[in-house]
Predict the structure of ATP synthase subunit b.
Amino acid sequence: MAFDATFFAFVGLVLFLALIAYLKVPGMIGQALDKRADNIRDELEQAKRLREEAQALLAEYQRKRKEAEAEAAHILAVAEREAAALTEEARQKTEEFVARRNALSEQKIRQAEADAIGAVRSAAVDLAVAAAQKVIAAKADASVQQSLFAQSVGQVKSRLN
């Protein structure tokens, strides 16, 4: 029997496969592939967890953003109400101030009128007294003046007692 190169190649192949089987290379390759598959699976699970955490954070930030927008809207509404109240209060105080100033002005005008009327009456009385004094002085003689003086002194005494 003649051995040719094909036979030796076949024997070499069988020996190579036997050596690989003896050294448990397929098991090592399988373990390496299993380890790589486990690593990929772990990375996928970690990526899934990270994605879920990211979605949870996104949802939380969206919720916080909505709460912040609602709070901002509430603060804006409160500020608008306060501004309206302050405006109304300022308007009322201005109206009250104007009313008080008008009343004070009217009171001063009435007082000025009363003072003017009093001054006119006083001047009229002084004028009437002066005129009466001149008329009485012109018509009265010494005896009439004496009796009038005595009568006036009597009235003053009766009033004082």
